[in-house]
Design brief:
By secondary structure, the protein is an alpha+beta fold. It has two domains: 168 residues, Endonuclease Chain A (Endonuclease, Chain A); 194 residues, Endonuclease Chain A (Endonuclease, Chain A), CATH 3.30.870.10. It is built from twelve helices and 15 strands. Strand 5 and strand 6 form a beta hairpin. It is globular and about 60 Å long.
Length: 387
């Protein structure tokens, strides 16, 4: 990881913080906007962000939107046409998605959520362009995080979005169309935080995010808090957590308590027994859907991003996280996680887990078997990691 000093990184909790900050940055844009997202919905939030992008393009800002071909397959064509007419350039990452194709390339998705405005402000996190509140969520918003970044880290984030835009434009014969006013990244120091931008792709950075987690877990001395929506780690990750617990580190996992995707939900629960036996705490979040992908270790190291701890994120998709080594930021994220854990989650105790009904156990192990098979099929030569 390339850590750089002098950043100002602000934590954004849920869409209530993220979307107003994103719109404000878009409204203030003067030269360039890049937005990448897995899901761009045609709901109230999606229309508001689309309108902000269209307004920016109409006043001459070079405005570029990249969406994933699977995650955004239901994006309203009329909304796309409105943005295009205003001058927004739109690319779809891997647009041809066949429901019958089983080859692993089908799962190489653009899962990262990034925005860069005037090469001066960046946003990195796990929040899609999607309403926090949906009819099946009840009264509580989807639980997720992002960060707003200013400072020297902009050089790496800006480079990443530009590089992917050029690559996808070239492969789709769309051309890059460099804008005459394309800015250089503003890398002047804006704060005192030390941070690194970490990506996962299918070329040179295939294991960078997982390795960042493992390095921090191996160094942990007192506490590990991980909040992750889809938790199905491979052997290296599981062994790292178990080893940390054995050496006396308190390990707390905040995981999905609502079954949003049945296979992922039950497959991950097959790992609970060994984790609970080792003394690892598992807290299941029931207040709403957990979508966070964050961690705090020893209240000094933190990460916020798009990467789940499962084969899809760690072995296939394009992901992006920010790693922050700053006690004040880590304390803020830690307080937020502890509050949500107290108010919205229930701890799963070993005794209760041992009394799970037979039907639940059968569903769990059946799902685990399917997940293992799929992981082996799609895991790019690392089958042993996810078995």
């Amino acid at each position: 990881m390339n850590f750089v000093e002098g950043n100002r990184i602000s934590l954004l909790e849920n869409g209530a913080d993220y979307f107003p900050a994103l719109e404000e940055a878009f409204e203030g844009a003067r030269r360039e906007i890049h937005l990448e997202t897995y899901i761009f919905a045609s709901d109230r939030t999606g229309r508001a962000i689309a309108a902000a992008l269209a307004r920016a393009a109409a006043r001459g800002v070079a405005t570029r939107l990249m969406v994933d071909g699977f995650g955004s397959k239901n994006l309203d064509r009329r909304l796309l046409e409105e943005m295009t007419r205003a001058g927004v350039r739109i690319l779809t990452y891997r647009p041809d998605v066949s429901p019958w194709a089983l080859e692993r390339s089908r799962l190489r998705r653009l899962h990262r959520k990034l925005a860069v405005v005037d090469a001066r402000i960046a946003f990195v996190g796990g929040i899609n362009i999607l309403d926090d509140l949906e009819p099946d969520l009840g009264t509580a918003p989807r639980f997720d995080y992002a960060v707003r970044v200013e400072g020297p880290l902009l050089a790496d984030i800006h480079s990443a979005v530009k590089r992917l835009w050029r690559f996808v434009a070239a492969t789709q014969f769309r051309g890059h169309h460099a804008h005459a006013r394309e800015p250089r990244p503003d890398t002047a120091p804006r704060g005192e935080q030390r941070a690194a931008f970490v990506v996962r792709d299918n070329l040179r950075h295939r294991h960078d995010i997982e390795d960042a987690y493992l390095e921090a877990i191996d160094r942990a001395r007192s506490e590990i808090v991980v909040a992750n929506a889809y938790f199905f780690p491979g052997m290296r990750f599981r062994h790292a957590l178990l080893e940390a617990a054995r050496r006396g580190v308190r390990v707390m996992l905040l995981l999905q308590g609502r079954a949003e995707y049945i296979l992922a939900y039950y497959a991950s629960r097959a790992l609970y027994g060994s984790l609970l036996e080792a003394g690892i705490e598992i807290h299941e979040y029931h207040k709403s859907f957990l979508h966070a992908k964050v961690a705090v270790i020893d209240r000094r190291w933190a990460t916020v991003g798009s990467s789940n701890i499962d084969p899809f994120s760690l072995l296939l998709a394009r992901e992006a996280n920010v790693v922050i080594e700053d006690a004040a930021f880590a304390a803020r994220l830690h307080r937020s996680l502890m509050l949500e854990m107290a108010q919205g989650a229930a701890q799963l105790h070993r005794e209760r887990w041992a009394r799970e009904p037979l039907a639940v156990r059968m569903a769990t192990w059946f799902s685990y078997g399917i997940a293992r098979f799929l992981s082996g099929m799609f895991a790019y030569g690392r089958r042993r990691e996810f078995t």
